[in-house]
Amino acid sequence: MTSMDARFGDATRTVPLPNPWNVTAYLAAVAAHRGRSISLHPVPTTMLADTGCGGGGLWVARKHDDIIVYDADATGRNADHMILHEIGHMLLGHGKDGERSGPLPPALAVILPSISPHSIEHVLGRSEFGTDREREAEVFADMTMVYATLPRRRTRSFRLFGRGR
């Protein structure tokens, strides 16, 4: 089993996917597992341009909670995918390194005007994660979307495509 296999398996065993799929229920389960609330903040695409998120979404980790900012124009499965990408970063432990240093993006003050910059531990968008971590979060979101739509089984853990049972 590769390291990626093990990490995805751990993530899905730790926070099982709801059946039927419901992103709100999954967010509640992830928040309960992490002991931190997670709120969603959809914003217009134009406001995301200068945040370092590549136009999709970003994760704002505060001292006691998390905020996922994502494209308000995305709907249904596209919105779920953006949200799951950020959840992937959380569950795969990508924010533990405190990779973000330096000032917060000025656009963040416009997007989240009621949030004190002092309450933010880190802001993680696509430019703050390396290529490998971005790929992992993207695969996590892709596989979660696939597995969330599969018929109910006794277990619903990830298996990388092309792997034997």
Briefly say what this structure is.
With 165 residues, this protein is of the alpha+beta class. The chain is 41% helix and 15% strand.
Describe the structure.
- With 165 residues, this protein is an alpha+beta fold.
- It has one domain.
- It contains six helices and four strands.
- Strands 1-3-2-4 form a four-stranded mixed β-sheet.
- A hairpin with a 2-residue loop joins strand 2 (57-62) and strand 3.
- Helix 4 crosses helix 6.
- The radius of gyration is 16 Å and the shape is globular.
The fraction of residues assigned to DSSP E strands is 15-25%
**Low-confidence spans:** 161-165
- Secondary structure class reads alpha+beta
* Overall pLDDT level: 77
Number of helices: 6
Query: Between the first and last Cα atoms, what is the distance in angstroms?
Result: 11 Å
Q: Topology as H/E string?
A: HHEHEEHHEH
How many DSSP-defined strands?
4
Shape: globular
Strand order, largest beta sheet = 1-3-2-4
Q: How much helicity do the residues have? A: 40-55%
Number of domains: 1
CA-based gyration radius: 16 Å
Q: Report the biggest beta sheet as strand number plus sense, adding barrel if it closes.
A: 4 strands, mixed
What characteristics describe this protein?
alpha+beta, 15% strand, disordered C terminus, 165 residues, four-stranded mixed β-sheet, 4 strands
Q: What layout of secondary structure does this protein have?
A:
Blueprint: H1 3-14, H2 23-34, E1 37-43, H3 45-48, E2 57-62, E3 65-71, H4 76-91, H5 106-111, E4 120-124, H6 131-148
Parallel strand pairs: 1-3
Antiparallel strand pairs: 2-3, 2-4
